[in-house]
Amino acid sequence: MDPSLLRERDAFRKKAMAQPAVEKKRPKPGSMSGRPPPKKKKPAWATAGQGQSSSSSLSGSAYNYKMMQGSSKYKFGVLAKIVNHMKTRHQQGDTFPLSIDEILDETSQLDVGSKQKMWLMNEALPNNPKIAMEDGGYVFKPPYHLRGRKDLLRLLNRHDQQGLGGIMWDDIVESLPNAEKSIKLLGDRVIIITRPDKKKVLFYNDKAFQLPIDEEFKELWHSSTVESLDEGKIEEYLRKQGITSMQDLSSKKFTPHQKKRPVRKGPRKFKKHNDHLATVLKDYSEDTNK
Known about the structure:
Blueprint: H1 3-18, H2 44-53, H3 62-91, H4 100-106, H5 114-124, E1 131-134, E2 137-140, H6 149-161, E3 167-168, H7 169-175, H8 179-186, E4 190-194, E5 200-204, H9 215-223, H10 231-240, H11 285-289
Antiparallel strand pairs: 1-2, 3-5, 4-5
């Protein structure tokens, strides 16, 4: 071999040995070092924009459901506040209509968005049974249209004449401005009855049925007791006094009427067959006897 080539090979080996080299260790089969490093979580402010942009595609997710639920709760809260305010205005005697901007101003809800405002104007307020449209504005719609205590007295009288009974206290308070003051001024012309459920009902007090009765008759009425007597003893006592009572008060039993079958007259008729072959067939009974 050429000695010059040998010298070059030895020089190359020395140069390679002089350079430092780091050996990469191979991972063992059961070690954790071979797994890729875990991904870092993005901060909350970075994922918030992505959640808003993908809200339309993830409409069924729990996040969007909560957002929808919160928005509907906010809208109906605004509507409830408006209805209560309109009711209070009507009870105080302010019956003139208001625009949507005036209502939001009086209820301190000027921060309502444009979508909620359009929902109030187009759906919520027109379809609400407690709100009515009048002269381009909104007013409270009471159960009865009453302006004063005379209207209330006429309404109670009409209910009494038609046999409809009384009217609930809550309905009158909603319908009549300053209702409690008007009812006090009516005095004994109305009767207030409290039901077992603590709700009050107003009735018309018709004084035509208030007849003067002697105190002697009242004492006799209260002194006579029939609690220990049954119906048979009361009927017998009335019969002895020459007073007849109604008889046969028991309900009669209903017996269904049975229809009679029609009686047949004359012999029973049977249906004949092969009448169309009467001229074609021939009787051979005489020929067989021969």
